[in-house]
Amino acid sequence: MPITEIEGRRLTVTRLDKVLYPATGTTKGEVLHYYAQTAGAMLAHLYDRPVSFLRYPDGPDGETFFTKNVPPGTPAWVKTVDLTRRSGKTGRQVVLQDTASLMWAANLVVELHTPQWRKDEPGVADRLVLDLDPGAPATIVDCCAVAGWLRERLSADGLHVYAKTSGSKGLHLLVPIEPTPSDEVTAYAKGIAVEAEHELHEQVVHRMTKALRPGKVFIDFSQNSAAKTTATPYTVRARAEPTVSTPVTWDEIDGCADPADLHFLIGDIAERRERYGDLLGPLINLNRAKRLPRAKR
Fold first, then answer.
1. What's the CA gap between 148 and 27, in Å, rounded?
2. What is the per-residue pLDDT across 167-206, written as a single tens digit (0 to 9) for each?
3. Is 6 exposed, middle or buried (0-12, 13-18, 19+ CB in 10 A)?
4. SS3 label, residue 103
């Protein structure tokens, strides 16, 4: 098995020629190359956040499973943290702090998911997220229309709003905030989602009930819960193609007329980063964090 050295760490990589995405012929080696190229930007968003893995070792058409626990065989040099779970039990999770650790995780073939809080303050969020999920026949184009309304509404509360594709069907809106208990963030986000449904009742639903969602955009505010996670910026998704949860500009959102306009694969990201830099950089700039208004009662 090939062994490579990254930042002084010896890492065994396996089955680099295995085709993970038959639709595009993308191999595991190409996916690892993508993560190596993108490590600088991605690690900034992973830093100090416990990671959950959606593993798909045989590609998106094979078995997939979600885990928060430290995988068996994890090298001693990969940082981990003990956390108390909602059940009251203590669990140990990985924290990806450097390129070597990121490449170790990538070799497992995973989607990376992180909470809105950091390891030193569990349950105290420093960002708010709204997940816009279209119910067919609605598409990401409909999400973009709703995102414009949400941006204006959140801006009226003095908040800065940034966006990325989910890498699946929809959009994630992200807001840097001063550290705030997750339950307060969830309450505020729910209030915004309810307000959006009231104002855009033909386009939006805030409840998860599947029967309500066809043709509408579901605003999932629940990912602000301390126990929930969201796809990390730049992670590759376990979809038919190697799509990426990609930061996008508001001009791109405003101009989106076709789902293909915001459909990005691993081969698209290097050029976008060269052109735009990290569009989500302000999320890790404390100067952009604002106090969250209290939820309306």
1. 37
2. 999 999 999 999 999 999 999 999 999 999 999 999 999 9
3. middle
4. helix
> Tens of pLDDT along 15-45?
999 999 999 999 999 999 999 999 999 999 9
Would you list the DSSP string of 6-24?
ETTEEEE---TT-EEETTT
DSSP string computed for 174-217: EEEEEEEEHHHHHHHHHHHHHHHHHHTTTTEE-S--GGG-TTSE
Query: Among 144, 136, 193, 149, which residue's Cα sits nearest to residue 166?
Result: 144
pTM of the model: 0.94
Q: Residues 52-76, buried b or exposed e (16+ Cβ, 10 A)?
A: bbbbbbebbeeebeeebebeeebee
Pair 45, 176: CB distance under 8 Å: no
Element (H, E) at 170: none
Nearest to 45 by CA among 271, 237, 229: 229
The 10 Å Cβ neighbour count of residue 87 is 8
Amino acid in position 35:
Y
Q: Where do we find the tokens 């816009």? A: 132
Cβ-proximal residues to 135 (8 Å cutoff; 6+ apart), any chain: 205, 210, 213, 214, 215, 216, 217, 218
pLDDT tens-digit series, residues 64-109 = 999 999 999 999 999 999 997 666 678 899 999 999 999 999 999 9
Torsions phi, psi for 100 (to 5 deg): -60, -45
CA-to-CA distance for 228 and 236, rounded, in angstroms? Answer: 19
